[in-house]
């Protein structure tokens, strides 16, 4: 199997009925790029920038961030790189920001909520991203968007910083795509509205599943409620993809579910355009996708949506699409 996978490193990911999907990688630092390139990723679907801010006692400067983002887009040589703005809070703390302890950190002051409040910190990151955009195919993604106003505010700040940089004579790409993570149920349900104001969506199932079932993703006692194959999740995914495609926008997924062999046939059938996963999952996923027919799976996915439980869905996929 390993040998079969190795032959696929330089291939595109095209299904048996000739449909192209993009297989991208999730990274946390530029150091991860070696594995990404060795495993034949067609892009970066999620660069988690919070690692730049963690394990230190002060904020990273604009220059430091610029260097990191520039390195990633340059080494990806024109392939798409989706960089997510700071997603701190929840399980990821930054002691030096001195944030108050919260009863429910996952429901609290995190990610875009914090960035819109602490604008100085956010503007530094936006400037670094805008400057790096001149060196490759950089896309910007905002995490934990729950309502349209957050997206509009974040985009307004981005445009302000862009105008300032241009006025300073600094090069900025004029074709940066701006998208959001869909990881809160309100955003999945309101996807038709969001789709008009973004260039792309990336579904963050790690959080979307936790918020849909109201079950902490870190708590073992409720881990049985972490159910990626549940028809409720599949329906949310379908809603997001349909809404985006209606507006001519693309949809990725960067939660763990995107690299899961049981989920992949369903996601292909629901019309997902980009699958972003850890680098080591890319070649197995490519090998699997080459053998699948998107047209056939579109019908199959509709059957799965009608089932009652996650177990039933998993069983149906395994019986039909996973060879032991
Ligand atoms: C997600 O929520 O699915 C996601 C990709 O983001 P993170 O795991 O960093 O919260
Ligand atoms: Mg998340």
TrEMBL record:
| Record field: catalytic activity | L-histidyl-[protein] + phosphoenolpyruvate = N(pros)-phospho-L-histidyl-[protein] + pyruvate
S-adenosyl-L-methionine among keywords: no
Q: Which gene encodes it?
A: ptsP
Q: Mind listing the UniProt keywords for this protein, alphabetically?
A: Cytoplasm, Kinase, Magnesium, Metal-binding, Phosphotransferase system, Sugar transport, Transferase, Transport
Q: Which domain of life is it from?
A: Bacteria
> Which molecular function GO terms apply here?
phosphoenolpyruvate-protein phosphotransferase activity
Primary role = General (non sugar-specific) component of the phosphoenolpyruvate-dependent sugar phosphotransferase system (sugar PTS). This major carbohydrate active-transport system catalyzes the phosphorylation of incoming sugar substrates concomitantly with their translocation across the cell membrane. Enzyme I transfers the phosphoryl group from phosphoenolpyruvate (PEP) to the phosphoryl carrier protein (HPr).
Name it.
Phosphoenolpyruvate-protein phosphotransferase
The family assignment reads: Belongs to the PEP-utilizing enzyme family.
Enumerate the subcellular locations listed in this protein's record, separating them with semicolons: Cytoplasm
Which cofactors, if any, are listed as required? Mg(2+)
Species assigned in the record: Alkalicoccobacillus gibsonii
Domain PEP-utilising enzyme C-terminal as annotated: residue spans:
2-291
What EC number(s) does its UniProt record assign? 2.7.3.9
């Amino acid at each position: 199997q390993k040998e079969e996978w190795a032959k696929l490193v330089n291939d595109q990911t095209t299904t048996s009925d000739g449909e192209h999907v993009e297989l991208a990688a999730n990274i946390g630092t530029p150091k991860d790029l070696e594995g990404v390139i060795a495993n034949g990723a067609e892009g970066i679907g999620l660069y988690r920038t919070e690692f730049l801010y963690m394990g230190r006692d002060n904020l990273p400067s604009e220059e430091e961030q610029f260097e990191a983002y520039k390195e990633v887009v340059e080494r990806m040589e024109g392939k798409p790189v989706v960089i997510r703005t700071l997603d701190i809070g929840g399980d990821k703390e930054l002691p030096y920001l001195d944030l108050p302890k919260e009863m429910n950190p996952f429901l609290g002051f995190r990610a875009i909520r914090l960035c819109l409040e602490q604008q100085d910190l956010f503007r530094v990151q936006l400037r670094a991203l805008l400057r790096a955009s001149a060196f490759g195919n950089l896309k910007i993604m905002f995490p934990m968007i729950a309502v349209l106003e957050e997206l509009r505010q974040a985009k307004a700040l981005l445009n302000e910083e862009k105008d300032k940089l241009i006025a300073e004579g600094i090069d900025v790409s004029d074709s940066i795509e701006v998208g959001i993570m869909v990881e809160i149920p309100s955003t999945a349900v309101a996807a038709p509205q969001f789709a008009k104001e973004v260039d792309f969506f990336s579904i963050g199932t790690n959080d979307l599943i936790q918020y849909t079932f109201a079950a902490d993703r870190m708590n073992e006692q409720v881990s049985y409620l972490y159910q990626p194959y549940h028809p409720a999740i599949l329906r949310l995914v379908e809603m997001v993809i349909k809404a985006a495609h209606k507006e001519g926008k693309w949809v990725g997924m960067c939660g763990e579910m995107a690299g899961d062999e049981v989920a992949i046939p369903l996601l292909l059938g629901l019309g997902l355009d980009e699958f972003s996963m850890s680098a080591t999952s890319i070649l197995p996923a490519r090998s699997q996708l080459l053998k699948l027919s998107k047209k056939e799976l579109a019908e199959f996915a509709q059957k799965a949506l009608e089932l009652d439980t996650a177990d039933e869905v998993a069983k149906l996929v395994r019986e039909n699409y996973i060879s032991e």
